[in-house]
Write a structure and sequence with these properties.
The complex is a heterodimer of chains A (392) and B (92). With 392 residues, chain A is of the alpha/beta class. Chain A contains 13 helices and 16 strands.
Amino acid sequence: MKLTALTGDQAAAEAMRQIEPDVVAAYPITPQTEIVMNFSQFAADGRVKTEMIPVESEHSAMSACVGSAASGARTMTATSANGLALMWEIVYITASLRLPIVMPVVNRALSGPINIHCDHSDTMGARDSGWIQLYSENAEEVYENIIVAVKIAEHKKILLPVMVCQDGFITSHAVEGISTFPDDKVKKFIGEYTLEHSLLDVENPVTYGPLDLQDFYFEHKRQEAEAMKDALKTIPAVLAEFNKTFNKSHDLVEEYKLSDAEVAIVVLSSTAGTAKGVVDELRKKGVKAGLLKPRFFRPFPKERIIKALSNLKAVAVLDRSDSFSGEGGPLFSEVKAALYESQKRPPVIDYIFGLGGRDIFPEDIKKVYKELEEIKKTGRIKALVNYLGVRN
Amino acid sequence: MKKKKGWKEIPIAGIIDKGGTAREYKTGSWRTFKPVVDKPKCINCLQCWIYCPDSSVLVKDGKMEGFDYDYCKGCGICASICPVKCIKMEKG
């Protein structure tokens, strides 16, 4: 273990350096982040043997990655915000072709209005694309998630692409002290990438992406659905192997002071860190506050969420994106749907927060816990969907 | 009709895991116009055979013998390329 001062972007690039993929195809200018800038430097300095392909658009970046991965090369790219939006078409195709591409994504707002700061509208929009999604609380999680993501994506029982998300600017640009693993240990953990059907295997010719009409398309989508469902069963074993190798404690979700909690917040990524501080403060005052941080959003760890939240008296979901359904954000919809299957069904409310990089402070989070305490006492929900930190 | 395979039996990701499978997919039904050759005018230059994107021009012993309508999509490239204009595109 080596303690290094790195930003979230640098942590992602460092993980990529250690993984040393065969190919990185990426768009080199904005909305691209410093992940690709830093990794390009590693390539230019000869510190990795990776073939760097700077392409003319994000759509081309993912297209090049598809060809590369289908040829049997371990392939990565990175993107953010509108860059992800531009590669959309190929994002779906990557998942349907079951190509295990790992892509760090820096979560930033989708335009418009034009904005470059943190929210989750980019990857939440891609939640139904068939990619596995991991959300990282801090730079260290970014680093570790990217390493474990390679192993998850390439697992023979999974074979799905993975997005490793981090909060734009908050995590991507802030410097943290993080512990990195030795290069050889990372390389040994991820192993060699072998693809069963390679486009370059001329002895055994194979076609990727042929027309697939009414007679077989549905069967292939059914396979894809099953792969994601199965991934939920396989991922814990991969995490256990990671934990054993690197002495860590990764899980599908992280529970923070939940075992005896009465009220709790569910939130992804960096805000979970802020909320933990609030939980500690409230605990000192005797409030039985807790926190649930889903680390995986796809596949959706439903059973773990039901188990973690069912005994609570009131729950608030914090969504850093709006789905414009008129019924709150995407995390809220899915957590609420999961709890419908619980016998106890605690009251759940939603707070949309932090859009376009609007800061969220401990005081804001305290307001949420205060409202949950109120619901605990009265059993009455004033508003199902709330907006936190927006001016009236 | 042979029962089609279910989702558990087919290769993943829509991959076709062998070569030469285009033969199993007859594309002749896509055709609106079909090429018809006026054989006495044909000089057997075989340019139609070279240009046909679906390998649907039948050739035997160096002579052009007509079309394989199981696969000809009716694109008309043969009629266009023919230097003596002996291929006409007809309805059907």
